[in-house]
Amino acid sequence: MDPSSQEQPKKRDGFTSNLGVLAATLGSAVGLGNIWKFPSLTGMNGGAAFLIVYLASTLLVGLPAMIAELTLGRAARANAVDAMVKLNPDKRKPWWLVAAAGVLAAFLIMAFYTEVAAWVFAYIFKSIGGGILSTDPAVTSKAFTDLITNPLQSLVWQWVVLAMITVIIIKGVSKGIERTTRRLMPILFFILIAICIRSLTLPGASQGLAFLFKPDFSKITAPVLLTAVGLSFFKLSTGMGTMITYGSYFREDQNIAGTAARVMLADLLVSILAGIAIFPAVFAFGFQPDAGPSLLFITIPSVFASMPFGGVFMVLFFILAAIAATGAMLSLLEVPVAFLEERFKVSRSRATISVSVLLALFGATAALSNSTLANVSIMGKNFFDLYDFISSNLLLPLGGMFITIFVGWVWGFGKVHETLSNNGTLSTRSVNKALFFIIRFVTPVLLFVVLLSGLKIINF
User: Is 460 part of any domain?
Assistant: First the structure.
């Protein structure tokens, strides 16, 4: 047989440009947490003071954990589980279980996150139809309740969102994830800036800016500190295998630490812009800045209904939220898909469809948690809250903690420096030493405290 006729091993897909790497990684980090969770937590925890604590937490927890995961992924060139198998110097110790927990976390998060994204996509059409354009919070509250308690709408919208993400993932890393995020991220920034400009022109907007940027350090308490640490970790998509997976698609000449820092700063910018877009308008029309999760679906429609051309800006806002959700869902779905594709040697389309069908079935329990399955509870929680609790309070901090322990205490500085310096082509030794110290001694300790707090083992 002619050797040239034999089938050559399929080349592993990856990101094709530095801009593509930045867009995809930023797309993973920027999610509904920026548009919804960050502003609401900032509102509930004292505004500017929380923002300062959050930034410090990001430098000590979120960014180091992100760099640690990207480093492992680029070094191994494999999915999260295979990466830990490949890089583990002691085969008797099952470090791959840490990555397996990350794959499970990504799946569980997708199970309920697709439902939240479903509400966002549904609200685009609700806002176009004018059904939620009311200054009365009772009206917007009823609209939201009607949506989440309708089993058919909940399921259909979740499946629509899942189908859209499935199609993109099937196209691959470069033609699917990279191409999509490169198009969506500029649109996200454009819409966000447009809403910011409108919000800042409202009478009384200065009160909202003062709330966001004038710190009141009396608000800083132990629970606020822990909230900031936890948020800094979760918002950068660490602990769930996404950054190991995305790191495996990085180019050989990619500056990992530099890229991660740019992603962190851009992610922070999106969060601050979201605060600028929301809080001046909230204060201008007399709404409460500490409305919590209801800020997105109940308060925001009332706020936009209060301003001229509010209907247009409300549509733009929910398109913005949908774009943010899309980038995050792409990275979450890619984690189990890459695992199935590489570990079990199945085609990408088959791996993607298999995971998506499982998510459609499993996620249905989260989608129906406010309707058909409202009376079903496990550990005192409905399915939606249970998946959130297991992933956010247990699997993510555990995964992040053990990943940083592996990098700091098992893999070692030599391997970390070799990867971060691109085999010595980057003069980053002093920076890498400082980063390695944080990864080894600081980040795992703080994540351990977050874990204990999330499990209610310690209370402040």
Answer: no
Whether 1 is in a domain gets the answer: no
Number of domains in the chain: 1
| Token pair in block for residue 166 | 């499935």
Residue range(s) defining the domain that contains residue 115: 23-454
Cβ–Cβ contacts within 10 Å for residue 354, how many? 16
Residue type, 202: L
pLDDT band of 9, cuts 50, 70, 90: low
Asked if residues 432 and 261 have their Cβ atoms less than 8 Å apart, the reply is: no
Give every CB contact of residue 322 below 8 A, 6+ residues apart in sequence: 117, 120, 121, 124
Q: What CATH number is given to the structural domain containing 302?
A: 1.20.1740
Cβ-contact 15, 24 below 8 angstroms: yes
370 pLDDT higher than 90:
yes
Tell me if 233 sits within 8 A of 396, measured CB to CB.
yes
Q: Per the domain annotation, does 5 fall within a domain?
A: no
Q: Give the tens place of pLDDT for each residue, 77-119.
A: 999 999 999 999 888 899 999 999 999 999 999 999 999 999 9
Best CA proximity match to 148, nearest among 162, 136, 135, 158: 158
Q: Where are the alpha helices (DSSP H) in 251-347?
A: 256-284, 294, 300-305, 310-343
Looking at residue 400, its amino acid is G
Burial 333-345 (b: 16+ CB within 10 A, else e): bbbbbbbbbbeee
CA distance linking residue 460 with residue 286, whole number of Å: 32
* pLDDT per residue as tens digits for the range 278-292: 888 888 777 776 655
Strand partners, 165: none
Report if residue 18 sits inside a domain: no
User: Which are the contacts of 228, defined by CB distance < 8 A and separation ≥ 6?
Assistant: 45, 50, 53, 54, 56, 57
pLDDT in tens, 153-162: 999 999 999 9
> Can you give the pTM of this predicted structure?
0.94
Beta strands in 163-307 (DSSP E): none
